[in-house]
Amino acid sequence: DVQLQASGGGLVQAGGSLRLSCAASGFAFGDYGMGWFRRASGKEREFVATVTWSGSSTYYADSVNGRFTISRDNSRKTVYLQMNSLKPEDTAVYYCNAIRSGNDYWGMGTLVTVSS
Predict the structure, then answer these.
(1) What's the confidence (pLDDT) of residue 102?
(2) Beta partners for residue 26, in sequence order
(3) CA–CA distance, 18 with 84 (Å, rounded to integer)
């Protein structure tokens, strides 16, 4: 079975940091691009960041560029999202995603709450 297990969410004050992790199993992790998305209450899911299968290229939403860093460890089959300078508008459920040639996997999310 394909599994994407996100963890690391929690409550943090504005300006603080959190590191999310997403552990993958059940598919060839190293062959997939990995991404993070988020959904705030009452809003559509939105793209946050993505990293290519090798980790050589990363892309970010404008809203998080310069504050968040996505990375991956293919030996551990894990993707990370380091979130710094958090803002209340970053409050959302964060989901990791694996994608390759039409195969698209989603995990259960982890809740990030940023207090002002």
Answers:
(1) 81
(2) none
(3) 7
